[in-house]
Amino acid sequence: PAQGLGPRSQGAVQAPEGSPASSPPSPRGQVMLLGDSGVGKTCFLIQFKDGAFLSGTFIATVGIDFRVRWLQIWDTAGQERFRSVTHAYYRDAQALLLLYDITNKSSFDNIRAWLTEIHEYAQRDVVIMLLGNKADVSSERVIRSEDGETLAREYGVPFMETSAKTGMNVELAFLAIAKELKYRSLWQPDGPHFQIRDFVESQKKQPSCCSFL
Ligand SMILES: Nc1nc2c(ncn2[C@@H]2O[C@H](COP(=O)(O)OP(=O)(O)O)[C@@H](O)[C@H]2O)c(=O)[nH]1
Ligand SMILES: [Mg+2]
């Protein structure tokens, strides 16, 4: 399994609205979490940062913003309605983690709208990863793993199912992004090759049961 970003030693930076504008400008890899309200974006970040899962809606309206090594990660909050993310945010992002909830069909159906928006406003070479979150709740699953895979293939983006609760594939998502951004920044014609989709496919874990539902 993938290891190595060591986020837990880093302090959190509280930023109202998760605004990138509140962070000092830097050459960091900027990573933004997107997806409908309730899909688990904030929990996903807290699991990565602290190794903890917080249930409930305590942080529903506040985004968090923190750094891990050279990644700067921010969360969108209160902007999850379609076309409500400030377009400047997209411009600054080098990578986007796009989440849906495998127990919520509309969050999955909205992924196409999110991708349309991303293609309109984000940097052309932005790294996108599609994540089907809450994979631990197999009893309430309404979106099959294959459906996520098919959609991801259609858009040419890597895909995994994740759980902000158990931590499944959470660190891997950031590790894959970090590797891809680093690879791009160091790219040389004869240099080593890195394919984010192959990396994710070779490292990702599957939910323990019922993924064929
Ligand atoms: N079972 C389970 N619940 C989750 C998971 N991720 C988030 N949740 C719950 O889903 C709700 C919304 O999570 P939150 O992070 O606030 O979503 P956000 O609006 O996208 O930031 C909360 O009640 C979380 O406890 C997960 O992976 N598994
Ligand atoms: Mg949130």
From TrEMBL:
Taxonomic superkingdom: Eukaryota
Region (Disordered): 1-29
Known cofactor(s): Mg(2+)
Pfam families, per the entry: Ras
Membrane topology listed for this record: Lipid-anchor
A GO biological process held by the record: protein transport
Enzyme class: hydrolase
Chief site of localization: membrane
This enzyme's EC code(s): 3.6.5.2
Keywords: GTP-binding, Hydrolase, Lipoprotein, Magnesium, Metal-binding, Nucleotide-binding, Prenylation, Protein transport, Transport
Cellular component GO terms held in the UniProt record: endomembrane system; endoplasmic reticulum-Golgi intermediate compartment
SMART domains: ARF (SM00177), RAB (SM00175), RAN (SM00176), RAS (SM00173), RHO (SM00174)
Subcellular location: Endomembrane system
Keyword Membrane attributed: no
SUPFAM superfamilies: P-loop containing nucleoside triphosphate hydrolases (SSF52540)
Catalysis performed (reactions): GTP + H2O = GDP + phosphate + H(+)
PANTHER family assigned to the protein according to its UniProt record, in alphabetical order: PTHR47978
Entry's family note: Belongs to the small GTPase superfamily. Rab family.
Protein's name in the database: small monomeric GTPase
Organism: Ursus americanus
Lineage of source species: Eukaryota, Metazoa, Chordata, Craniata, Vertebrata
